[in-house]
């Protein structure tokens, strides 16, 4: 498909069936749960590295994001819309740290049909999405570490989503990003 | 009127899921469930041998009525088989099984941690099954 053509919708169920196969393919080839998470994240990373160029070309973005906040907005809005057809639920900053941010998502698309067995602990298939974010950030010149975590929801929260854990994409930039940010000033 | 038990058996005829759907259903031990499932599978094979031509309703045993309960079976082309027992005069069992098959396809088959043909222990499938049963019971009782 050429870049100039409008992008067609991908059937979600077909995508998720493929994703399920991807996860079980990886699972059969690793020793531990940690390694599985790492593997998924690496696969996402490779996609993310390419995705940035694709988005820039397709969305006809003429300006490169050089500031921390604008790249984060780019992730939460443009990248999310590109990948999932909607904006990220929320983008927040970790208190007392200039380098750490996180994106919350109630139900990541990739986890829609996935139930993680109890013996996998805090394993989250959204590690794949975290890898994509990582790839995009790195190729945009913002070296960072991105991990997907599961957060058990406390009981007072809305009853509809109760029991469904919250996924957190935790983004930690390298110190050099902050140094550059300070050099660039306001 | 209401649902009693749901069973899912795999291609080879072994039980991969059973669930008591109502408080009023007779209490069965896990052993009874295994026994019932394999008996039903054997019966199903026999009937299919005797009448190899599919009818308008399906293939093999589709419904079975006794004096105290009805049994409805649904066998998609893939070989997995669902059957449900219910009180007499319970309606729309075929539609219920079709819905069960839909959530099975979504939450069991698209879950990378489920091993094919093994017993189903999948949280989201159970949650959605429960929701489906509740919805069905509400519709029947209104």
UniProtKB/TrEMBL annotation, chain A:
Tell me which SUPFAM superfamilies the record gives: Ligand-binding domain in the NO signalling and Golgi transport (SSF111126)
Q: Which GO terms describe its cellular component?
A: endoplasmic reticulum; TRAPPI protein complex; TRAPPII protein complex; TRAPPIII protein complex
Looking at the keywords, is DNA repair present?
no
> What superkingdom heads the lineage?
Eukaryota
| GO terms classed as biological process | endoplasmic reticulum to Golgi vesicle-mediated transport
Question: Which protein family is it in?
Answer: Belongs to the TRAPP small subunits family. BET3 subfamily.
Indicate the quaternary assembly. Part of the multisubunit TRAPP (transport protein particle) complex.
Protein known as = Trafficking protein particle complex subunit
State the species of origin.
Gracilariopsis chorda
UniProtKB/TrEMBL annotation, chain B:
**What are its GO cellular component terms?**
endoplasmic reticulum; Golgi apparatus; TRAPP complex
> Its family?
Belongs to the TRAPP small subunits family. TRAPPC4 subfamily.
Enumerate the UniProt keywords alphabetically. Answer: Endoplasmic reticulum, ER-Golgi transport, Golgi apparatus, Transport
Ranges in coiled-coil conformation: none
Question: From which organism does this entry originate?
Answer: Gracilariopsis chorda
Lineage top rank: taxon? Eukaryota
- What's the chief localization of this chain? endoplasmic reticulum
Localization: Endoplasmic reticulum; Golgi apparatus, cis-Golgi network; Golgi apparatus
Name the InterPro entries for this protein. Answer: Longin-like_dom_sf, TRAPPC
Q: One GO BP annotation here?
A: endoplasmic reticulum to Golgi vesicle-mediated transport
Indicate whether Nucleotide-binding appears among the record's keywords. Answer: no
Subunit and partners:
Part of the multisubunit transport protein particle (TRAPP) complex.
Gene3D superfamilies found in the cross-reference section = 3.30.450.70
Q: What is this protein called?
A: Trafficking protein particle complex subunit
PANTHER family registered for this protein in UniProt: TRAFFICKING PROTEIN PARTICLE COMPLEX SUBUNIT, TRAFFICKING PROTEIN PARTICLE COMPLEX SUBUNIT 4
């Amino acid at each position: 498909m050429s870049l100039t053509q409008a992008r067609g919708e991908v059937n979600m169920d077909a995508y998720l069936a493929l994703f399920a196969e991807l996860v079980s393919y990886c699972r059969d080839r690793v020793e531990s749960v940690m390694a599985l998470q790492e593997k998924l994240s690496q696969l996402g990373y490779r996609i993310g590295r390419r995705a940035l160029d694709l988005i820039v070309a397709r969305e006809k973005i003429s300006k490169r994001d050089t500031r921390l906040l604008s790249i984060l907005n780019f992730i939460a809005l443009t990248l999310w819309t590109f990948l999932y057809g909607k904006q990220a639920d929320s983008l927040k900053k970790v208190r007392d740290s200039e380098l750490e941010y996180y994106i919350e998502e109630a139900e990541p698309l990739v986890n829609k049909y996935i139930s993680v067995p109890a013996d996998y602990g805090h394993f989250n298939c959204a590690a794949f999405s975290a890898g994509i974010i990582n790839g995009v950030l790195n190729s945009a010149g913002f070296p960072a570490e991105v991990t997907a975590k599961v957060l058990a929801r406390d009981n007072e929260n809305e009853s509809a989503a109760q029991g469904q854990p919250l996924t957190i994409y935790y983004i930690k930039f390298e110190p050099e990003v902050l140094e550059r940010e300070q050099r660039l000033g306001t | 009127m209401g649902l009693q038990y749901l069973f899912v058996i795999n291609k080879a005829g072994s039980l991969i899921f059973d669930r008591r759907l109502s408080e009023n259903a007779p209490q069965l031990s896990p052993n009874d469930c295994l026994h019932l499932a394999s008996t039903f599978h054997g019966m199903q094979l026999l009937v299919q041998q005797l009448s190899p031509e599919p009818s308008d309703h399906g293939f093999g045993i589709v419904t079975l009525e006794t004096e105290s309960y009805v049994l409805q079976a649904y066998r998609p082309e893939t070989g997995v088989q669902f059957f449900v027992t219910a009180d007499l005069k319970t309606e729309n069992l075929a539609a219920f099984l079709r819905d069960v098959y839909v959530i099975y396809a979504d939450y069991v088959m698209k879950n990378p941690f489920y091993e094919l043909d093994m017993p189903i222990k999948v949280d989201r499938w159970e949650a959605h099954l429960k929701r489906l049963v509740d919805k069905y019971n509400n519709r029947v009782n209104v």
